[in-house]
Amino acid sequence: MAGLDQDTPLPTEITLHRKSRVLEIAFDDGTRFQLPFEFLRVYSPSAEVRGHGPGQETLQQGKRDVDVLSLEPVGNYAVKPGFSDGHDSGLYSWDYLYMLGREQERLWSEYLARLEREGGTRDPAKVPPPAPKGGCGHHH
Q1: Of all helices (H) and strands (E), which one includes residue 39?
Q2: In this structure, is the dihedral angle defined by the CA atoms of residues 8, 57, 103 and 11, taken in order, positive or negative?
Q3: What DSSP character marks residue 124?
Q4: Which domains does the chain have, with CATH numbers?
């Protein structure tokens, strides 16, 4: 199959836990990962998030409450989640999901470190709105 490592385990079970906002995925090698929707969203493989080269990644902010509204199978090698913030261009292949599961702690701490470094936030309410054009409009 295209784009898949022969050695990548295949998922035997994929469950969306909406209340806890976790995607649970079990692989045929016996591993089982719980990937929070926020983590999946922040590490979306889409070009919009990844950029088109190292260092071009767009920092994703305010995704703490993001939901997965749909999960569409793509061929036999990937799923495409539809997120509540409208993002649906990420194709999560089995090997990508497996990598996310294995590297979850490292990736998550990198994300938190980057948020801190760039003054970002996980809370949707605190993400600064884009600055209005031309002055601030507060004349007293």
Answers
A1: helix 37-42
A2: negative
A3: G
A4: 11-122 (3.30.2020.30)
